[in-house]
Write a structure and sequence with these properties.
The protein is an alpha/beta fold and about 230 residues long. It is built from six helices and eleven strands. It binds adenosine-5'-triphosphate. Pfam families: ABC_tran (PF00005).
C-alpha cells in the first residue's frame, strides 16, 4: 500500500544569518491511507510548520515531502495548488471568510468537487453543517459565531471537499468534550470509510484513543517514542 504522506530527512528553518533558526530537523514519517496519526509535542516544537509543509502551503527547503506519491520539493506553484485541492486542512484561527455566511464558507469546500450541480453542492454543505451541529446557524457570519462554532464550520468546510488527506491543527481546541469527541469520531470515520489519511496535531489528552499511531515531537525532531496503539 503506497503511503499518502512520506517524509524523509525533512529540515526547515526560518530567518537568515544570525537570526536563522532550524525548527525541523531530519523528520521522517509516513501516513498510510485510512490511518489516523496523532502528533503531539510542546508548544513551539514545530508541529504546525510540519503540517503546512505537508499541506503544500510552504516550500520545502531540504529533504523530501511526498504527498500522494508526488514530490513537493521543487514543485511549481501550480502543482502545489493542484495537490492542495485533494487535501483538507483544519487550521488554527479557523481561516473563514468574514464576509461569507457559515453555509457559504462550507460551500467553498464543496465547490472544489467537480461535476456536482449547485444544488448538490449546497445540499452537501448543509449536510456537513448538520453533522457538526450547526443547522440553526447556516446564515450567520463568522463574527456572530463562537470560537467553537467557527471551528466546526472550518471542519465542515474541510470535509465537504471530500479530501483524500486531512491535516488538522488542534481541531478540538475550542470545543467542549462532547463536541470534541464527536468531531474526532467523524474524522476517524472519514479515515476508515473513505480511506482518507488523517494527521492531527493535538494537545488534547481526551482524544488520544482515536489514533492508530501516536507520534511525539520535541525540538523539531520526532522522538523514538512514536508508537502504535493496540
Ligand atoms: N513564519 C515564521 N517565521 C519565523 N519563525 C516562525 C514562523 N513560524 C513559526 N516560527 C517559529 O518556529 C517554531 C515552531 O513553530 P510552530 O508553530 O511550528 O510550533 P508548534 O509546535 O505548532 O507550536 P504550538 O503548539 O504553540 O502551535 C516556533 O519557535 C515559532 O516561533
Amino acid at each position: 500500500m503506497a503511503a499518502m504522506v512520506r517524509l524523509e530527512g525533512l529540515r526547515h528553518s526560518f530567518g537568515s544569518g544570525v537570526n536563522r533558526r532550524q525548527v525541523l530537523q531530519d523528520i521522517s514519517l509516513c501516513v498510510d491511507p485510512g490511518e489516523v496519526v496523532l502528533l503531539t509535542g510542546p508548544s513551539g516544537c514545530g508541529k504546525t510548520t510540519l503540517l503546512t509543509l505537508i499541506g503544500a502551503l510552504r516550500q520545502v527547503q531540504e529533504g523530501s515531502v511526498q504527498v500522494f506519491g508526488e514530490e513537493l520539493k521543487g514543485a511549481s506553484r501550480a502543482d502545489r495548488l493542484k495537490l492542495r485541492r485533494r487535501i483538507g486542512m483544519i487550521i488554527q484561527g479557523h481561516n473563514l471568510l468574514r464576509c461569507l455566511t457559515a453555509e457559504q464558507n462550507v460551500q467553498m469546500g464543496a465547490d472544489l468537487l467537480q461535476g456536482l450541480s449547485y444544488r448538490a453542492r449546497r445540499d452537501r454543505s448543509r449536510e456537513w453543517l448538520r453533522v457538526v451541529g450547526l443547522s440553526d446557524h447556516l446564515g450567520k457570519l463568522p463574527h456572530d459565531l463562537s470560537g467553537g462554532q467557527k471551528q466546526r464550520v472550518s471542519i465542515a468546510r474541510a470535509l465537504a471537499a471530500r479530501p483524500q488527506l486531512l491535516l488538522a491543527d488542534e481541531p478540538t481546541a475550542s470545543l467542549d468534550s462532547r463536541t470534541g469527541r464527536e468531531v474526532v469520531e467523524l474524522l476517524k470515520g472519514l479515515a476508515k470509510d473513505q480511506g482518507c489519511g488523517v494527521l492531527m496535531v493535538t494537545h488534547d489528552p481526551r482524544i488520544l484513543d482515536v489514533a492508530d499511531r501516536l507520534v511525539q515531537m520535541e525540538d523539531g525532531q520526532l522522538s523514538n517514542g512514536a508508537f502504535a496503539i493496540e
